[in-house]
Design brief:
It is a single chain. By secondary structure, the chain is α+β, with helices and mostly antiparallel strands. The chain has one domain. It is 26% helix and 29% strand. The strands form three sheets. Strands 6-5-7-8-9 form a five-stranded antiparallel beta sheet. Strand 5 and strand 6 form a beta hairpin. The longest helix is centred in the first third of the chain and has 42 residues. The relative contact order is 0.18.
C-alpha cells in the first residue's frame, strides 16, 4: 500500500508539471502568432522609392496600426517614442483576448485582455533609409517569462 501511495504521488506531480508545460507552450505559441501578425502588418506599410514617377521616397507615416483594422491619424513607419517596448505607449500598444481578437489600445488593458502587444519603429543607425521594427507580446496577467515573445525585422526602401 505504501509503494502504491508513493507511485501515485509521483504521477500526480508529473501530471501537474505536464499541465503547466502545456499552458506555457500554448501561451508562447499564441504570443508568437500575435507578434507575427503585427510584424506583417508593419512590414506591409509603404516604404519604397517611386521609380515610376518622381524617384522620391514614399513612406507611410499616417497609418495607426494600434486599431484593427488600421486607421489614418497614426505615425506609420515614423520613429516611435523611446521606451515604446517597455511601457504601453499610445499608438504603439494594443490588447487582445485569448483568441487573439483585438480588444482595444491605449495605456490600460481593457476587461478581457489576455495579451499585450507593443511595438517600436526606429531608424537604423547604419542606414537612415531603413527601419528597425520590434514587436513584443506578453501575457497581461502572467509573469513575462511565462510567454514573452520579441520579434525584430529591418525594412529597407526598394524600388517600386
Amino acid at each position: 500500500m505504501a509503494l502504491i501511495a508513493v507511485a501515485v504521488t509521483g504521477v500526480a506531480g508529473l501530471a501537474s508539471v505536464a499541465r503547466q508545460s502545456g499552458v506555457t507552450a500554448r501561451t508562447q505559441t499564441s504570443a508568437t502568432l500575435l507578434a507575427t501578425q503585427k510584424m506583417e502588418q508593419l512590414l506591409a506599410l509603404t516604404w519604397r522609392i517611386d521609380l515610376s514617377g518622381s524617384g522620391l521616397p514614399e513612406s507611410d507615416t499616417s497609418s495607426d496600426v494600434s486599431y484593427d483594422p488600421p486607421r489614418s491619424g497614426g505615425a506609420g513607419l515614423d520613429p516611435s517614442p523611446a521606451g515604446s517596448l517597455q511601457a504601453d505607449t499610445p499608438g504603439y500598444a494594443d490588447y487582445l483576448d485569448n483568441s487573439g481578437r483585438w480588444l482595444g489600445r491605449g495605456t490600460t488593458p481593457p476587461a478581457g485582455a489576455v495579451y499585450r502587444r507593443r511595438w517600436s519603429v526606429q531608424t537604423s543607425p547604419l542606414n537612415p533609409d531603413a527601419r528597425v521594427i520590434q514587436v513584443l507580446v506578453t501575457p497581461v496577467h502572467r509573469p513575462a517569462a511565462a510567454g514573452e515573445i520579441v520579434m525584430t525585422a529591418v525594412k529597407t526602401r526598394k524600388a517600386s
